[in-house]
Model the fold of this input.
Amino acid sequence: MKLALLLSGGKDSVYAGYLAKTKFKHQLICTISILSENKESYMFHTPSINKTQSQADLMKIPLIIQKTKGKKEEELKDLEKAIKLAKEKYKIQGIVTGAIQSVYQSTRIQKICDKLNLECFNPLWQKDEIEYLRELIKNKFKVIITAVAAYPLDKSWLGREINNQFIEDVKELKNKYNLHPAGEGGEFETFVLDCPLFKKPLKVKSFKDFKEGENSFRREIKLE
Done:
């Protein structure tokens, strides 16, 4: 099946694309990134979203970029516009998403796909979070933390790579604070620097950190 990947730059979307291509043998025909002006968007990942062009280039897959004001529900019209363009331009048959547990996101994307007569493929849906993190490491995904937004996460977590020590740390936080180990509740955001889909790794040239709230920090990265 010819699919378009909803690409946010983070681990969930990239790994979903990886599974769609390698495990389920679908074709990734294009990628779609939604650039939201609203950092608190209900639908779309915003940290490092402007870096997805670099990832798409390394996957040698065209990228459709759609801007949105990020207003609740209205932003779905912009998503539909981008998916419709992908269908018309690249003849896609479905969409790949990185949804794990968000019913809000998955049902709304499904509704758009139904309207456009497309399949909606969610290879990570209801996946065990610890098993998922271990799979990322096993499959040679280099993933860093670009934002945190939940106690007791702080600035020191920015830039951390998802490795075995990270898994042990988030398991402890899950037990103590009920924090979602994969960040599904928005506890943290990620960016993929390398994976088997990329022809070479991305490298961080420089970065700048911002404090956005009492337990909210964000890292803006610049790539080489």
Observations:
- Strands lie at 2-6, 27-36, 63-68, 94-96, 119-121, 142-148, 188-194, 204-213, 216-223.
- The chain has a mean pLDDT of 94.
